[in-house]
Design brief:
The structure is a homodimer of 321-residue chains. Chain A is of the alpha+beta class and 321 residues long. Chain A has two domains: 2-166, Ribosomal Protein S5, domain 2; 168-309, 2-Layer Sandwich (Alpha-Beta Plaits). Helices cover 36% and strands 21% of the residues of chain A. Chain A is built from eight helices and 14 strands. In chain A, the strands form three sheets. Chain A has a six-stranded mixed sheet. A four-stranded antiparallel sheet of chain A has the order 2-3-8-9. In chain A, strand 11 and strand 12 (281-285) form a beta hairpin.
Chain lengths: 321, 321
């Protein structure tokens, strides 16, 4: 009746932005991500017959449970159960701020919810389940390097899958945190505005799969420079599609940190930036360069702090305390 | 044998970005600008039979004269003259920093060069002449609100023309200067990279003429809000086409000033941002709001100073001193 799971955010190297047509909350383009160790969401789901509705607490604060209920309802249907649940989740990193807390959050929720309702641990089933509420969270079920196909307009299962394990590539992600505040515009809202109003959305849909193929090929070849160049191009193309619709996730420090990454690269260190739907800059570097790059990014005005994350594991059940 | 002209920068409300195919340095899309009073380039051209090559001085420093010579050669051909010239130009605002110093510079040069070589003052002829070296400079020959058509692939004359005089619209442009340094990448270089590598360049070529039509319609209707919305959309679409090719003219302060413009607008004051191929933010406001908006922008960290400019006159000959 109670289960707890943990999951880690993932950073898309080939970005997903925009939904496929149809009812299934599937991405319009394929994506490829790395799951990060070190940033952790822990979520417990406890069934409680006394509750009239699901109750959600994030980092000790009551929050709107609408999206959580949409996921739980699917699990309850599969388990033949109707009992409502108390969901308690904690992040050890900023929430709703472009650090993929919704990815780790829905991944952990999917695992915990299935276990609390008596269903077996099955990352692929949980990935499809999480994807139906938060598409990018489907990738956090798996560790290392993970891909998620584009939807085909049907309601078929669409889970993510591992492309390569965490140790496949000598990679660190240096996260330059530029604010601790939640972002002004959610990914869903920004995506909807982009797909409705960007003059470049059609071109993004056409171009993104090519960038995904470049990222995938470079990853399999363990070529950090080719991977980083394609990842930076993917991030810039995604943001450009949004900017052309008036959706700007960048802050000043975002642009200044991006410029610093490019200066680091110009000085001979392999360093490539990626930016999600938020203001932080994530820099892809070799492990041996991570500390030096972190120090340079920490010195950029507006960068509040810097985290260094390695490729990490997928979601898992943890013992209840 | 010596003539001096002055001209003012212009700020495109509907942006030009990218060249038409063909030899004539014509823009790929139509544009519409406002010429600004208050920022002035003064250029003198003096023929000197002792010179083996044209000599260019900008703000007291010797500079490469290649592009200046390309313009002068056309005038010399028309005038049946071969004598080289000493060109002295001064700007009372930052040079090559995204404040359209090349626009005012080549406009003033075209007027001064024609006069020094004995050709009559003719803004339309001078506009076509200037355009062949620096397309956006064609618009600075005229005052007020000025448009320049896209090229058609031929070498025909393509001068700008006035759409409405300076007093047509109650407008001020608040320029938030974010650096006094020259920009890292010239407009020409950024344009070439965009047209060669941006996945969105084709969509830009298709979309920009629609934004130009919106700007033109709003201008003729004296509708500052519609004009501003279309101008901001044009600027963001232009930058987005470049960003997707890895060309980033924004600095941190650019993005922070843009966000401040949007906050000003959200609080009820008509204020719309436009950004050229450089880091400064130009805000379109009513004259009565200019000082308040200037004060808010001056308070943005990274904004060094703020200029307020009204629509101004075209290029003209000035008496030699």
């Amino acid at each position: 009746m109670k289960a707890t799971a943990q999951a880690h955010p993932n950073i898309a190297l080939a970005k997903y932005w925009g939904k496929a047509p149809g009812p299934a909350n599937a991405p319009a383009v394929p994506s490829l991500s790395v799951t990060l160790a070190g940033l952790t969401t822990v979520t417990s789901v406890e069934l409680d017959r006394s509750l009239p509705a699901d109750r959600l607490t994030i980092n000790g604060r009551d929050e709107d449970a609408t999206r959580v209920t949409s996921l739980l309802d699917r699990v309850r249907r599969e388990a033949g159960e109707t009992t409502r649940a108390r969901i308690v989740t904690t992040n050890d990193f900023p929430t709703s701020a472009g650090l993929a807390s919704s990815a780790s959050g829905f991944a952990a929720l999917a695992v915990a919810a299935r276990a609390a309702l008596g269903l077996p641990f099955d990352p692929t089933r949980a990935s499809d389940l999480a994807r139906r509420t938060s598409a990018s969270s489907a990738r956090s079920l798996f560790g290392g390097f993970v891909e998620l196909d584009a939807g085909d307009g049907t309601d078929r299962d669409l889970p993510a899958r591992e492309v390569a394990p965490a140790e496949h590539l000598d990679l660190r992600v240096v996260v330059a945190v530029t604010t601790e505040a939640p972002k002004d515009e959610s990914s869903t809202s920004g995506m909807n505005t982009t797909s409705a109003h960007s003059p470049y959305y059609a071109a993004w849909l056409e171009h993104a799969p090519r960038l995904y193929e470049e990222v995938r090929r470079a990853l399999l070849a363990r070529d950090l420079d080719a991977l980083g160049a394609a990842a930076e191009a993917s991030a810039l193309a995604m943001h450009a599609s949004a900017i052309a619709a008036g959706v700007v996730y960048f802050r000043g420090a975002t642009v200044d940190a991006l410029a610093e990454v490019r200066r680091i690269r110009a000085s001979g260190t392999s360093a490539y930036a990626t930016i999600d739907a938020g203001p932080h800059v994530k820099t892809l570097v070799r492990a041996a360069d991570a500390q030096a790059v972190a120090a340079r990014l920490a010195a950029v005005p507006g960068v509040l702090r810097v985290l260094v994350a390695a490729p990490g594991p997928g979601a898992s059940l943890v013992a209840d305390r």
